[in-house]
Design goal:
354 residues, alpha/beta, Elongation Factor Tu (Ef-tu), domain 3, Rossmann fold, 2 domains, 6-stranded parallel β-sheet, mitochondrion outer membrane, NAD, OxRdtase_FAD/NAD-bd
Length: 354
C-alpha cells in the first residue's frame, strides 16, 4: 500500500523517521502543530553563509528564451520583509535583479564564501543595487557563464539559488566541485571581490499556490536545491496548503546539504512537511535508511499514484535519475517515464524532472 491519508509506516524500513505521519493525521496522540492557525507561516530561516546546479547542463541556455515571458523588465513590487520600512512606516520599494528577456548577463561581485563540506561551498554574490531582490519565480534558476583563456566557447551552467527571495542585496549559490568540471572548478577558485556572469530567470515548473494537494520531492546531492526552493516558496505563502514529502539520498552524512533548513521546515510545519534521508555510506550510529533510494521506501512514503492531485519531482545525478524516473532528454523535453516511479504506477504527467 502507498502512504495514504494516514501515511502508515512500513515496519521493516530502517528509518529514524519511520514514515511518520503528518501531525494533523495522527489522532489524539499527535503533537500539537507548532503553529495551528498563524496569521502567516513562519518562513524558512534565511540561510547563513547555502546547491551545484539545479539540474541540467550547458544546454540549459535554451531556457533563457522562455525567460522573456517572466521578465517584464524594470517592474517594481513592495515587500515588507525584503525592503523593510521607511521612517514614515511605508515599505521600501524593491525591484528584481533578474528580469530576463534582453537583459543579458549581470557581472556580480562575490561577497562571501562559506565551506559546507569537502567539495561544496556557498557563494554569496552582490546584486547591482542593495534594494534589489533576485526576482526569481518558483520554480526557476539562473544561468552562469564562464569562458576560460583559450576556450573556444563559453561554459554555461544552471544553478538554483538557495537564499530567501525576500532578502535584498544578494543571490546565493550552493556549488559542488566536480573533478574536471570547468564551471564548478572556476567558481570554487573565485575569491571575494571577483565576479561571475549570471543571467535569469530560467523558467522550470510553473508553480501556483495549491496547484497540487501533495508533492513528493526525490533528490540526490545538489539536486536538493530546486526542491528546497519549491518547498520554501510553498511554506512562505500563507494561502498555500500543499503537503510536501522529501526523499533525499546522499553518499555520507556530511553530504546532506541544507539539512538545517529542511529540519526547520519540518519542525515548523509538522502537519505538512516531512523528510527522509538515505545514505549509501552510513555511520554506525545512523538510524535512517541505508543504501540507495528503493522502491519499498518510495512506495511507503510518497503520495500514491491513484491520488487525484499529486506531483512527483526528481532531481539528482544521472544515475539516480535513470533509476528513479529516467533522464530527461533536454531542458524542453522531459523524455519518457521509466525506472522505479514507472514501476510503481505513476504516469508521465505526474512526474517532473528538474
Amino acid at each position: 500500500m502507498f502512504a495514504r491519508s494516514a501515511f502508515r509506516a512500513a515496519q521493516p524500513l530502517r528509518m529514524s523517521q519511520h514514515a511518520r505521519r503528518f501531525a494533523t493525521e495522527t489522532g489524539s496522540t499527535a503533537a500539537k502543530p507548532a503553529a495551528a492557525a498563524p496569521a502567516a507561516p513562519k518562513t524558512a530561516a534565511a540561510p547563513p553563509p547555502p546547491p551545484p546546479s539545479g539540474g541540467g547542463g550547458s544546454s540549459a541556455f535554451v531556457y533563457v528564451l522562455g525567460a522573456a515571458a517572466l521578465g517584464g523588465g524594470g517592474y517594481y513590487y513592495y515587500s515588507n520583509q525584503a525592503g523593510g520600512a521607511t521612517a514614515a512606516g511605508a515599505p521600501k520599494i524593491t525591484k528584481p535583479a533578474f528580469t530576463g528577456g534582453d537583459q543579458g548577463f549581470l557581472s556580480l561581485k562575490l561577497a562571501e564564501v562559506v565551506d559546507v563540506n569537502h567539495n561544496t561551498k556557498r557563494f554569496r554574490f552582490e546584486l547591482p543595487e542593495k534594494n534589489m531582490v533576485p526576482g526569481l519565480p518558483i520554480a526557476s534558476a539562473v544561468l552562469a557563464k564562464y569562458k576560460g583563456e583559450g576556450d573556444e566557447k563559453a561554459t554555461l551552467r544552471p544553478y538554483t539559488p538557495i537564499n530567501d527571495e525576500n532578502e535584498p542585496g544578494y543571490v546565493e549559490l550552493l556549488v559542488k566541485q566536480y573533478p574536471g568540471g570547468p564551471m564548478s572548478t572556476h567558481i570554487h577558485n573565485l575569491q571575494p571581490g571577483q565576479t561571475l556572469d549570471i543571467k535569469g530567470p530560467l523558467p522550470k515548473y510553473a508553480w501556483t499556490e495549491n496547484k497540487h494537494d501533495h508533492i513528493g520531492l526525490i533528490a540526490g546531492g545538489t539536486g536538493i536545491t530546486p526542491m528546497f526552493q519549491l518547498a520554501r516558496g510553498i511554506f512562505q505563502n500563507a494561502s498555500d496548503k500543499t503537503k510536501v514529502t522529501v526523499v533525499f539520498g546522499n553518499v555520507s552524512k556530511e553530504d546532506i546539504l541544507l539539512k538545517k533548513e529542511l529540519e526547520e521546515l519540518e519542525n515548523t510545519y509538522p502537519q505538512r512537511f516531512r523528510a527522509f534521508y538515505v545514505l549509501d555510506k552510513a555511520p554506525a550510529e545512523w538510524s535512517g535508511s541505508t543504501g540507495f533510494i528503493t522502491k519499498e521506501l518510495l512506495k511507503t512514503v510518497l503520495p500514491e499514484p491513484k491520488s487525484d492531485n499529486i506531483k512527483i519531482f526528481v532531481c539528482g545525478p544521472p544515475g539516480l535519475m535513470k533509476a528513479v524516473s529516467g533522464n530527461k532528454v533536454s531542458p524542453k523535453d522531459q523524455g519518457e517515464l521509466s525506472g522505479t516511479l514507472q514501476e510503481l504506477g505513476y504516469t508521465k504527467d505526474q512526474v517532473y524532472k528538474f
